[in-house]
From TrEMBL:
Taxonomic superkingdom: Bacteria
Protein name: Uncharacterized protein
Organism: Bizionia echini
Record field: transmembrane: 6-26, 33-58, 64-83
Assigned keywords, A-Z: Membrane, Transmembrane, Transmembrane helix
Record bears the keyword Membrane: yes
Amino acid sequence: MNLETFIYGYIPILIGLLGILVSIGFTRKNLNILNFISSIVISISNSLAIYMLISILAGAYPTFMPHALILISTILVLIQYLIKRRKLIG
């Protein structure tokens, strides 16, 4: 296992799995339509990104699309966190 595989393959897979778990946790604690829809979008996009990354690790042609999907879904998780934080304060 070389360093490039670890940085561009395994770490994004872990970030994607963590994003799915955190998003579902936010939705379970504060069930509203915005959290529910964003949790579905995050889960689908991260699942697709993880599938693509596993395919790349198995020998498919590399692309940065799964990294972009994980970045967008991480931003959505941060938005979910800020909404949750604002509701706890206000």
